[in-house]
Amino acid sequence: MPLLALWIVWVIDWAGTLAGLVAFAHALVQRSDAYTAADRMTKPVWLAITGGSTAAMLLFGFYGAGMIFWLAGIVASLVYLVDVRPKLIEVQRGGQNW
After folding, report:
1. Which domain does 30 fall in, by range?
2. Pairwise CA distance, residues 76 & 91, whole Å
3. In the prediction, which pLDDT does 16 show?
4. Where are the membrane-spanning stretches (predicted)?
């Protein structure tokens, strides 16, 4: 594999892992009642999902035999970051923006 391709794979791998760490850290510092108020799964469930997805991305690389586990991890982290995180922020901000 050319050097440029290896560099691109490395950047994608670590950017995904960083997204997983951000998702886990955000899930860790949120209030437990905010998850139920936002009509999402509970805090321990999201901690398990984001923690497991981050571990999968650390253990399995973006390129290789375990790529399917890496892809499942990035999908789980992105679901948290794109769907759950904005709802939690909205609920904790208080009120609706009409």
Report:
1. 12-93
2. 21
3. 95
4. 6-29, 67-84
DSSP-assigned states of every residue in 7-55:
HHHHHHHHHHHHHHHHHHHHHHHS-HHHHHHTT---HHHHHHHHHHHHH
* Distance in angstroms (rounded) separating the CA atoms of residues 54 and 36: 23
Per-residue model confidence as pLDDT tens digits over 55-82: 999 999 888 889 999 999 999 999 999 9
Sign of CA dihedral 36, 38, 41, 45: negative
Is residue 5 included in any domain, yes or no? no
* Tokens at 65, concatenated: 């035999």
**Is residue 1 in some structural domain?**
no
Calculate the alpha carbon distances from 20 to 6, 42, 87 in Å. 21, 18, 18
